[in-house]
Specification:
This protein is an alpha/beta fold. It contains 15 helices and 14 strands. It has a seven-stranded parallel sheet with strand order 3-2-1-4-5-6-7, with helices on both faces. A seven-stranded mixed sheet has the order 10-11-9-8-12-13-14, with helices on both faces. Pathway: Cell wall biogenesis; peptidoglycan biosynthesis.
Amino acid sequence: MTSSDGVGPDIGGRALSVIVAGGGTAGHIEPAMAVADALRRLDPNIRITALGTQRGLETTLVPERGYPLELIPPVPLPRKPTADLLRLPGRVRTAIARSRAVIDAAEADVIVGFGGYVALPAYLAAGRGLRGRRSVPVVVHEANVKAGIANKVGARRAARVLAAVANSGVRASGRADAEIVGIPVRESIATMDRAGLRAQAREHFGLPADGPVLLVFGGSQGARTLNEAVSAAAPQLLAAGISVLHAHGPKNTLQIAEQSAPDDKAKYVAVPYVSRMDLAYAAADAAVCRSGAMTVAEVSAVGLPAFYVPLPHGNGEQELNARPIVAQGGGRIVADAELTAKYVLDEVIPLLTDPVRLSQMSAAAAGAGHRDAADAVARIVVEVAGR
């Protein structure tokens, strides 16, 4: 029997059932939801079940996107030899058993995982279990250059391994056949016409219709370095005719009130949080931002030139995320300690006032991005399921 949309034969007369496992942070959840949306575009009858934990952002983000969410116990991996390490085996077994129950109840045909606490139990539960339970094929997607433990483990037994960039850390699992597909982003981002949305976007934020706009954001919580450097340069930015849309984070405040240039041709708009990032991207001509994997994917997909400011701590992952875009000429990497008001004056303002350079960097950023990543992953998931 073949499904009405031509995706492939139904199994036992039922629609394809897919489990997406990616929770904890937006960097895991957003790609999972983008792929879920792409699967629904392929076939509205495909059944999607999201796997998550009570501790992650998925408890809010997944229901908002209209998908059922099944919760499993979180299994954080202790970084030091503490009592938690002794309890780890029992927690893993509990999480695997719960994941297997969800797999069986959903009659899952395939699991696509994006790493994190949720993915590891799902990968382990997908294998053939006790009492002759069937195994379920797995597709692993790694967004970062340095893969986490979950995806390294999952890649060893996955049917297909997908990566955002070349030389991804999933190769450390022994899988040299990782396919480069980019990071799945929301359809509103993947299909964005920045020029066409420009007027609507600027009106939405109360920005001038004409003149360059700088977008500043440091993730959902903001970033103090970005906030201090750009806000300190506010007078010079406005004097140069550059408007600013600055998302400073809900827990932060700026030592600046909304300001305008004397002739009202430029305005500094500071907000705690931006819920319509698609409109923020459309309103802007360049960005100053961190370089988390999801941020880099979205900013490059829409062709927005950016000054990427990697987190100064951690394993250096954020700088590695931005390097492919910078190598193509679509952005610059700025060390956290080097982003000052003087840097904004010396580097950011000259770029924003040079339409030719902005256009060139925009084209380079768009060329380095992967707008079709979600659809590519969706097609692979369907292929792995045998459709």
